[in-house]
Design brief:
The protein is α+β, with helices and mostly antiparallel strands. The protein contains 6 helices and 16 strands. Strands 4-10-11-14 form a 4-stranded antiparallel β-sheet, covered by helices on one side. A 3-stranded parallel β-sheet has the order 1-3-2, covered by helices on one side. Strands 5-6-7 form a 3-stranded antiparallel β-sheet. The relative contact order is 0.12.
Length: 326
């Protein structure tokens, strides 16, 4: 069996064709760990009948080269270079029942199907009761959502609305169609955006849009999981990147709408650390690696812009949202 170990000079030339590459840190350093690691790797691969070439792992590149303030340029077609959000303003007016009735019509003869919210038959009463202090709703009242046509107990939809953000919008639990303008629970913060004179991998023909999100720790409001309790904000400011081309600018404009609607971040439990009551991303993926893609959060990624447009669409943010702002 043959085990190939490449020197630092050998790493600059092509790896032997057909020989698996095993990245090993500190291959040429003074660490006492690397000789043992290299030896064990060679033994295991050789035992399997495979030659191996030990190389250095790719380098994580999170940030671009230093950029002076004078090199930062505004983005054509987008006013200002900073956007802030404040605390949520409480909306007054319509009751939960009025909101639900706005987006549905009564069904006089319900089909012999289950309500997918309470899992009771639509021909039977709802499995939910009216919240205390709210006007009573007939438990057997059934309605059909106007655009998508899905059918539920009215009382079930009211219960679902009361369990959400109560922002005057309604989202079909079956097809996720949004009725009204969906808003989120993002804490107060700042979003900066500008052009930097560097290109992203896969986009050599244009410069880069850099977005900087900054949210400080604070106290949870009534719309958050634990009102009155403090929340943490790890890893801020967070730097994200888009190519400065037509589609990249379109994504930025829609991200600005998402920011204004408080949909970029939320407060919850971190999927990476398990920490609760902390600021986390809210289902709209961002690219946080500038010059590599080792974590899947960088470039090149030819499908990213289309994917994030689809994620924004799922939050009710489309090109029509830009026309509404105008």
């Amino acid at each position: 069996f043959v085990t190939h170990t490449c020197t630092q000079e050998a790493m600059t030339v092509a790896v032997i064709r057909g020989v698996p590459t095993v990245p090993v840190k500190n291959l040429n350093g003074s660490s006492p760990v690397h000789p043992a690691l290299a030896g064990i790797t060679g033994i295991l691969m050789s035992a399997a009948g495979l030659p191996v070439c030990l190389t250095r792992p790719p380098k994580l590149v999170l940030h671009p080269p230093p950029v002076s303030r004078s090199e930062l340029k505004p983005i054509p077609g987008i006013s200002n270079t900073c956007r802030k959000t404040s605390k949520k303003q409480v909306k007054k007016g319509k009751t939960p029942e009025e909101v639900v009735r706005k987006y549905m019509q009564k069904v006089r003869q319900p089909p012999e199907e289950d309500c997918t919210i309470c899992m009771e038959r639509l021909t039977a009463p709802s499995g939910y009761r009216c919240a205390q202090g709210q006007p009573a709703i007939k438990s057997d009242l059934v309605g059909k959502l106007l655009n998508c046509g899905h059918i539920y107990h009215v009382q079930c939809l009211v219960a679902m609305y009361n369990n959400g953000n109560k922002d005057g919008s309604l989202q079909c639990p079956t097809c996720k169609m949004i009725y009204g303008v969906k808003t989120g629970t993002q804490p107060p913060g700042k979003m900066e955006y500008h052009i930097i004179p560097h290109s992203l991998p896969g986009h050599p023909d244009c410069k880069t849009i850099r977005i900087i999100y900054n949210i400080p720790p604070g106290i949870q409001g009534p719309e958050h999981p634990n009102p009155g309790k403090s929340f943490t904000a790890r890893g801020f400011p967070r730097h994200c990147y888009l190519p400065d081309n037509e589609k990249g600018r379109k994504v930025l404009k829609l991200l600005l709408v998402a920011w204004d609607r408080r949909l970029i971040f939320t407060i919850g439990t971190s999927s990476t650390t398990g920490e609760s009551d902390t600021v986390i991303w809210n289902e709209v993926h961002h690219k946080t690696e500038f010059g590599s893609n080792l974590t899947g959060h960088g470039y090149p990624d030819p499908n990213y812009l289309d994917n994030v447009l689809a994620e924004l669409h799922a939050q009710g943010i489309t090109e029509d949202s830009l026309k509404e702002k105008e």
